[in-house]
Structure formats: C-alpha cells, structure tokens
Amino acid sequence: MDLKELTAFRTILQEGTFSRAAEKLNYAQSTITNQIQRLEKEIGVQLFKRGWDAELTTAGRIFASEIDKLIRHWNEVSDLAKALQRDEIGSLRIGGIESAMETVLPNALRLFHEQKPRIACQVVLGNTASLSQSILQDELDFAICGEPSDPSSFYFEPLYHTKIVFAADCNHPLRTRNEVSFREILEYPVIAGGPTCLYYLQLTKELARSEVVPPLLHTVNQTSAIPHFVKQTLSVGVILDSTPLIQEVETIDAELNEPFIPIGLLQPRDRYVPHASSLQLLLQIVKDEIERTGLNLKKKP
User: Fold this and answer.
1) Helical H runs in 215-275?
2) pLDDT at 50 over 80
3) 126: Cβ–Cβ under 8 A, 6 or more apart, which residues?
4) 3-class DSSP state of 129
5) What pLDDT score does 253 carry?
6) 118 to 40, 64, 121, 123, 193: CA distances (angstroms)
7) Mean pLDDT of the chain
8) Which has the closest alpha carbon to 65: 127, 10, 123?
9) Parallel/antiparallel/unpaired status of strands 260-268 and 142-146
10) Pairing relation of β-strands 249-252 and 142-146?
11) CA distance 41 to 36
12) How many CB atoms lie within 10 A of CB 235?
C-alpha cells in the first residue's frame, strides 16, 4: 500500500467513476485500475463490485469511511520521517553547573528553540562529578562544567575560568585588611564545598602545602549556601566568584596560588550522538552566549 493507491481510491470516490478519477489525476484509466487492484491485493479484500464502474462492496464502504484518516496519517508519518532526516525532531540532554544555569543556558536555549522548535531539551543541574558520571552512563549529551579528575573518557573544551574566592561576614576582622594571605585565612574556621565541589582538589592541594591548618573545616555540599553559613560568624567561606552573595556577607581580598578553574564543554569521547547537527548548533550558540555575556573575558591571566 502506498499513498498513490490511497489517493486513487479517494479520487474515485470523489469523482464517481474510474475514468473521471484518471482524468483528474492525469493518469491513464488502466493506471487507476492497476492501482486499485494492487490495493485490493495488499489489504486482502475487494473494494469495488466487478461490472460496475465505482460501486463499493461492503468492505469498500468501510475502507472508504477511513480513507481520509489513512491519508492524513500517511502524510503525518511522511512529514515526521522528513523532519527526522533533516534532524528537526528529537531531544538533547544537557547538564550544567549552577552558574551555567543562571548565566549561559537560559538564553542559549531560547535562541536554539527559535531555530529548532521541535527539538526538546532535557536540562539537568549538577556538579562536575555528577555531570561527568551522567555523561559516562549515556544520560547526557554534553555538560557545561569543570574538567573531571579523570578526563580520559571525555573531550573537554575550556571556554572560560572561574575563580576561587573567600567570603566572610562584613564585620569579620579580616574584612578591614587590604591584603590577606591564605595562612591568615586558616587561622579561622573554614567552610568549603565537599569532595564533589568544583574547587575541592585545588583547595586540598593548598591545604596540604600549608604549615597551618584551620581550627575547624566544615563542608557544605551546595556552594551557593555557604554565604548563609558564614553570616554573623568568624568562619571564612570558600566559594567561587560566580556564587551569589547575600546581605552582610562580602569577599575578602585574599589569593590562592592556583585560584582559577577552567569551565567548558564536556562531551563523551568517540560516541555518536543522535541529532548531531542540532547538537553542534546548540554548542555554537552556547559559545556565542559566553562571548556575548563576557564570561570569555574571565580567563586565567
């Protein structure tokens, strides 16, 4: 069964005779006859009574009542197949760290949907550790995050750098100082992100090289919550420069030896991604959005 056979059947119904249907479709009458015979053979029933030009059988009347639905469904399936062929339908699975969710992805996805309105996007918030694991498990097509501790299974394209900074209550003694050393930071309780935090490895390296250890080292697995924990205390929070501060909490002018952390596009290595052209379009839009927002200026000196 094909669309030509269905169209021939419906045209016979509309025109009343095989000959007028052939004329309407610009076919020879024998062509129309052959199409109907093939259709009858394929569905296994006789549609027209023999000896009459266009008198339907009982089965033919039932088939006629469904012909418009059949043709409409055929066209819908055909349009769907063409859209899939053009990479216009499907879904992309995207991950991002918190700062990317707030700065890059919202507008990038709006721009993407203007060009690919039938591609659905599934967006997941996470840290670098969880997002890289999701990519390995084929749950994400790409993520905007840091570089994983073991990058061998990924392709990581750095786009900008975020920076480790320190935050404290506005009345903290260190807030009155113009320059503060890391050693002086460690004289106070420290609140930092846990082992899955983007800066965890770099912070632990700094701590390992220091002769001084903080009196207490607290961990909070959500970096954005740390400013709330340092408020009205003597603790110093370790956050990123993209972390929103709250009222009465400000940054301390202190530097680490290695404060910069690369942020970029993390993708699986050597894995085919369906809708690859749509993926490449979205990746380019993300890069353009980073350029537009000025994040690309935050590069390691």
Assistant:
1) 226-230
2) no
3) 95, 96, 97, 134, 143, 145
4) helix
5) 82
6) 37, 33, 10, 16, 39
7) 87
8) 10
9) antiparallel
10) unpaired
11) 9
12) 22
How high is the pLDDT of residue 269? 85
Nearest alpha-carbon partner for 100 in 286, 271, 238, 270: 286
Specify the pLDDT at position 271. Answer: 72
What one-letter code names the amino acid at 72? Answer: R
Q: DSSP labels for 203-231?
A: HHHHHHH-S---S-EEE-S-GGGHHHHHT
Strands (DSSP E) found in 7-150: 90-96, 119-125, 142-146
Nearest by Cα to 103 from 264, 289, 267: 289
The predicted structure's pLDDT at residue 83: 53
C-beta separation of 167 from 249 below 8 A: yes
- At 85 the pLDDT is 55
- The first and second tokens of residue 101, run together, are 């969710």
**Paired tokens of 83:** 């859209």
Tell me, what's the pLDDT at 55?
Answer: 82
pLDDT tens for 75-117 read 766 665 665 555 667 789 999 998 899 889 999 999 999 988 8
Q: Which two tokens mark 86?
A: 């053009």
Beta bridge partners of 96: 125, 144
Model pTM?
0.65
Please say whether the beta carbons of 273 and 93 come within 8 A: no
**Residue 118 DSSP code:** T
Residue 237 reports pLDDT greater than 60: yes
pLDDT at 48: 85
Q: Give dist(CA 260, CA 247) in Å, integer.
A: 25
The domains located in the chain, with CATH, are: 3-86 (1.10.10.10), 90-159+262-293 (3.40.190.10), 163-260 (3.40.190.10)
pLDDT tens per residue across span 215-224: 999 999 888 8
Query: Nearest-CA neighbor of 157 among 35, 287, 246?
Result: 287
